[in-house]
Amino acid sequence: MSASRLLRNPGFAGLLVYRLLAMLSYQIVAVTVGWHVYEITRDPFALGLIGLTEVIPYFCFALFAGYAVDHLPRRKLGMFACLGLLLTTLMLAGVAAGVLPTGGFGFATLTIYAAIAINGVVRAFLSPVYMSLFARVLKREHFARGSGISSVVMQTGLVLGPALGGALVAWGGKTSAYLVAAGFALAGAIAIITLRVTEPPPQAERAPVFKSIGEGLRFVFNNQIVLGAQALDMFSVLFGGAVALLPAFIHDVLHYGPEALGVLRAAPAAGAVLMGLWLARHPPQKNSGRLLLYAVAGFGLCIIGFALSRSFWLSAAMLMLSGMCDGVSVVLRSTILQLSTPDEMRGRVSSINGIFIGSSNELGAFESGLMAKLMGLVPSVIFGGCMTLAVVGATAKLAPKLRRLDLRELQ
């Protein structure tokens, strides 16, 4: 089935709309709240606390969110998650508009951090709901093509959300930005609750929470293909991420101004969108495991090329190519998870995958800064790229089932 015919599937199209709306709401808030907190505090450390305030609740609730998705109506959970985003954006809009007390590092800032913490809990539900419903609106033989389309939608949200958030803050102010994000969250709630999809019947008996979570963990850690794909992504992002150091590269290596930051930050997402469009038309099937390993190795080589570049446009090209390689990895990993996971366990496996990805992004930024401090800016990024290549080699050796994987065998 072609990509255009898949998009005419009302269930799949509605699910993509839900994902895009929720992502736009989340991304607009992420951009606006950073500006908001710094405007109040003028303290860079307060910006660092934003990520920490969100990631701790996310990790605490992720496994329980996966359990809930596997045992409760998925559309209702998705609706409540979007309503949670709506609540937090209205709280933030209240602070920005002066409806709630403002000023200094006091009640206003604590209210902002409370909203961010709620966002962390909400985010724990968004991806498991999407991944579990994805398998209900598409047939197994369409998972690879559907994952390509899904990657395009996700990367489009990652590009448009921050850009829209920045424009709204600049032209309409923080309150307007938060209210627009609230509108997207409300629209996302409507999209998911009206989604045309059949859900599995409720189980007559539910396993105890911790026993059920343990089943999900055992499934992942006993499945060489699933564990290998998740570990490969986690460690490649952990060591190979250069985005956290972009301001330093622009200032110290490329000698450009702040206007260059937007271009370089958008370059990986633009590459991922282009690759997602290609894969939506030409879904990978043969030699899928080897292709995944080659894509992650290509990502590592692009990061090394970026570190060695002294040309702004060459650096942008390297980051775009890294995004294209990462786009292949995202599509293949998503397809592997969908095809390998039993329907009754999709929520838990998706939440575990979210922990892998979330930890790699957060810890990767910390690792990049630490290694840059110890080794210097350019050597640290070269080291990270080399470590990514080492991770690929180790995965190829330790996970032979993943290396020999052909997606046609899982369909």
UniProtKB/TrEMBL annotation:
Domain of life: Bacteria
Entry keywords, A to Z: Cell membrane, Membrane, Transmembrane, Transmembrane helix, Transport
PROSITE patterns named in the record: MFS (PS50850)
Record field: transmembrane: 12-38, 44-65, 77-99, 105-126, 147-171, 177-197, 225-250, 262-280, 292-313, 377-399
First-listed, main subcellular location of the protein, grouped into a coarse class: membrane
Domain Major facilitator superfamily (MFS) profile: 1-200
Family note: Belongs to the major facilitator superfamily. Drug:H(+) antiporter-3 (DHA3) (TC 2.A.1.21) family.
Name this polypeptide is given: Multidrug efflux pump Tap
Protein species of origin: Lysobacter gummosus
Record lineage: Bacteria, Pseudomonadati, Pseudomonadota, Gammaproteobacteria, Lysobacterales
